[in-house]
Amino acid sequence: MTTLSAETALQHITRQLARRGIPIPSTDPDPGPSTHAGQPGEPGDPEWHHAQRVELAMSRWQRMTPPVYQEAHTDHSDVIAWSDTVSQAWPKDGEQRLQGPSLLLWGGTGVGKTHAAFGGIRRIAAAGVPRFSMVFTSQPEMYAAMRPKPGREDQQERLERQLMRTPLLLLDDIGTAKESPWTAEILYRIVNHRYNQRRPTIFTSNYSPKQLREVVGDRIHSRLAEMTTAVRMDGHDRRLPRRA
Ligand SMILES: Nc1ncnc2c1ncn2[C@@H]1O[C@H](COP(=O)(O)OP(=O)(O)OP(=O)(O)O)[C@@H](O)[C@H]1O
Ligand SMILES: [Mg+2]
């Protein structure tokens, strides 16, 4: 029978948990200097901690990302600049909240807005930020999920809270949902909260910022204008075959 020393057993358990994406306070991404020098490739080695953070963040990114965007990378310079700013602003300490700029990717159907958004967020995960977390929804899906259902009366409030508080939100297709006073109020509350807290958000839209003003109204438009860099995306509809 092999007897493991207490320290070796702890390292073994730590590795197993980390592989399954379960954070452990003592090893989960401790961005500060290690308290003891670990062997290369073992807990305590800064490179080991970084690799664990990347693995955990990327597994969360993959879980949140629909199959069609699983291979998304971005080479768009504005999106890359945004990702790197957000990665650098990402709190090293669990007590702090992420604050940073937001993006509005706008342009025609199929030009690659959602793809670029997932690519930008992937870049943040791949940087190995601690406790990476994101939420993805589209405006129409968000309203559908919030509609009151019997027995789920708290659903709207729960989802709103989640969309307000998540460090990173990808809110796809703004302006496409049919607005009513109920939907307009929800969108305002979420945008206003993320604006007030400076929470990084990527919005995508088929509308230009000017057209969005008509669609979402002055109050939301004004907040979007201040909090986002508007990036126009051009090109053909990538879902359609290209004519020779
Ligand atoms: N840079 C890229 N490299 C490879 N594939 C891409 C790229 N950009 C987009 N695609 C692919 O093209 C398709 C359309 O992209 P996407 O869904 O991002 O478009 P969109 O601008 O968000 O469209 P919509 O306005 O309809 O929401 C997807 O299959 C996407 O994975
Ligand atoms: Mg899209």
UniProtKB/TrEMBL annotation:
Domain AAA+ ATPase intervals: 99-226
Gene3D superfamilies: P-loop containing nucleotide triphosphate hydrolases (3.40.50.300)
Domain of life: Bacteria
Family annotation (CDD domains): AAA
Region (Disordered) residue spans: 17-48
Keywords assigned: ATP-binding, Nucleotide-binding
PANTHER family in the record: ATP-BINDING PROTEIN RV3427C IN INSERTION SEQUENCE-RELATED, CHROMOSOMAL REPLICATION INITIATOR PROTEIN DNAA
Name of protein: ATP-binding protein
Lineage: Bacteria, Bacillati, Actinomycetota, Actinomycetes, Streptosporangiales
